[in-house]
Amino acid sequence: MAAEENEIIPQEVQDIGLDEYFEPKRFGSKFWLSVSLIIITIGFILFYKFGVIDQSITGEELKSSIEFFDINSQWVVKQKIDTDEFKGVILVPQISFRVRNIGSQDLKNVFLLGVFSFLDTGKTIGEGYEMILKDGLPPEGESRRVTLTSGFGYRATSERAFDKNQKDWRTTFVEIFARSRNSKLTFVKSFYISRKIEGLDIEVRL
Q1: pLDDT-based confidence at residue 25 (cuts at 50, 70, 90)
Q2: Do 153 and 177 fall within a single domain?
């Protein structure tokens, strides 16, 4: 028994065991965590540069890139009312157009706001808005038709009543503003609204 307790383990066995146990790991979990953080940081920087900074556009650049064409304006029935106090319709101003990109870079996710007002007093009638070009519009590209409609307008017993009460009509115009990506809401252009009434072959004349 004493001989067994004092038995000496061969040197080569000791070396194999100790080397395997004490050999330091070259690439531990901390190393790979650091590498991952570096890769994520570089990826974020590249995304911010090419996805945000390089695609940014100022309000003036956006304004100079937008051209309106195929423009049409009219008054449309917004609502029909049938109550004890009043029976009739509400007619509101509307403008429609297409957009052409005359700039040097793609236009994408452009928010358009139309503010409708009376010309003589400047009083706002209502607003209409729409987000366009979600898929992007390259230089020289042309958009689908865009329609902006006021939320408020005139009230009368019928569409034809507007033609009979011409004295109540006032000249109306719309100011169009645009915003895209990180640009500010910028005034682009204004248009007069015609006195044509949708569905009727008449145009109110003052």
Answers
A1: low
A2: yes
